[in-house]
Amino acid sequence: MTPVELSRTVLHAVRRAVDDGELSVTVPERAVVTAPGPGGCGDYATNIALQLAGAAGRPPRDVAEILRARLVGEQRFDDVVVTGPGFLNFSLERTAAAGLVEEILRRGLRYGHATTGFSGTAVLLRCPAEVRAVVVADAVTRVLRSQGDFVRVECDGPPAPEWASVLGVDVTTRGPRIADRYVTVRPVPAPADPLPLGRDAARWALLHPAAHDRPRIPGDHLVQREGNPLFRVRYAHARTRALLRNAADLGFHPEPGPVSEAEALLAVLGDHPRVLAATATHHTPDRLARHLLAVAAAAMPLLPAVLPLGEEKPSAAHRARLALAEAAGTVLAGGLSLLGIDAPDHL
Predict the structure, then answer these.
(1) Are residues 182 and 137 in the same domain?
(2) pTM score, whole prediction
(3) Of the N and C termini of the chain, which has fewer Cβ atoms inside 10 Å?
(4) How many structural domains is the chain composed of?
(5) Domain DALR anticodon binding: where (predicted)?
(6) Looking at the domain assignment, is residue 272 inside a domain?
């Protein structure tokens, strides 16, 4: 179950409580689902009860208990717990984790993308003819299109030809002239020419900082070590690909199943569709970059346990861990591709 699916499930419980007369509130458009905070438990949590308590005229914990009674019977939950002032915490059924991995592997690099092609709004995106603005506009366009939007890009002036040839930007003006939404991208300009960094490092250097932050040029974006965030993301991806090759040499393949002590990784993988949607809504490719760093950080502790050690034979647990590692690599590669950055299999 992804956060988007869980949000729908929670809203359905709210709607049932309203229909049954236990709550007198307007059903919100969405329930915010996140990883549990301090004092929480399980795989996901939501503050929907705190959000509704004022309108319902009841304490948040009372609202949470009303919703919990409608959620605890869901087959996809092992448990639903109320913590703190009224947070609902969800522990997913172990088979739900396997279902998430199966979905990621089935969707591949398009996991988190809109499933119905171009079905969103028409967006006219404008940017100044400055290298960082053009790269940010290119990344925002990619993410918007992944969510089903039609996008037309217009620059205030002609982009330099090398921005396309070296940085791979595509700010052609295809797309609708009449838009439902108008967006202006105007980040803090780059303090120096990023082209000497090459496509991948330059794009990361321009996209990873928030729009109001000044990017570091040249920085350490070409250094192959832990201190380089781009290296951490690409290294985690390359490790997952190496594990798949090594497992094939040992004669076993990924097979989704329950994986113990992988809650953090499953949470960030399940959060990927929400992050893409938020990146598209707020036009913030830095949000996606930070998410990829979180995926890489959550994946790295799993990877040493994927392959059998010594004379150990591959087991169902090894196959499940391998499938989860492949899913993590898939999300990393898909996210990097939306930023216009390559995810090499060897590093």
Answers:
(1) yes
(2) 0.77
(3) C
(4) 2
(5) 233-347
(6) no
Start-to-end CA distance of the chain, whole Å, equals 33
Which residues fall within 8 angstroms of residue 5, CB to CB, at 6 or more apart?
none
Confidence of residue 146 (pLDDT cuts 50, 70, 90): very high
In Å, how far from its chain's centre is CA 275?
4
pLDDT in tens, 180-238: 889 999 999 999 999 999 999 999 999 999 999 999 998 888 898 989 999 999 999 99
Q: How confident is the model at residue 71 (pLDDT cuts 50, 70, 90)?
A: very high
Work out the average pLDDT over 133-157. Answer: 93
Q: Name the average pLDDT for the chain.
A: 91
Give the long-range contacts of residues 68-72, CB within 8 A, separation 24 or more. 70/13, 70/16, 70/17, 71/9, 71/10, 71/13
Domain containing residue 24:
3-92
Domain boundary among the residues 195, 224, 248 is at 195
For the residues of 58-86, what is the DSSP string, one character each? S-HHHHHHHHHHHHTT-TTEEEEEEETTT
Q: What is the pLDDT of residues 39-59, one digit of tens each?
A: 888 878 999 999 999 999 999
- The Cα–Cα gap between 164 and 140 comes to 16
Residue after which a domain boundary falls, among 153, 180, 195: 195
Evaluate whether 130 touches 120 at the Cβ level (below 8 Å): no
Token duo for residue 165: 């040839």
- CA 54 centroid distance within chain: 31
Please say if the pLDDT value at position 96 is more than 80: no
Percent pLDDT > 70 in the chain is 95
Distance CA 125, CA 181 (A): 8
Structure tokens at 300: 């790295």
Q: For residue 137, what pLDDT is reported?
A: 96
Residue entry with tokens 């900082």: 209
Report the interhelical angle of 272-282 vs 285-299 (nearest 10°): 160
What is the rounded distance in angstroms from the CA atom of residue 116 to the CA atom of residue 3?
19
| 105 inside domain | no
Contact 112, 4 (CB under 8 A): no
Residue with tokens 């990873």: 208
Q: What is the CATH number of the domain that holds 23?
A: 3.30.1360.70
pLDDT surpassing 60 at residue 66: yes
In a domain, 298, yes or no: no
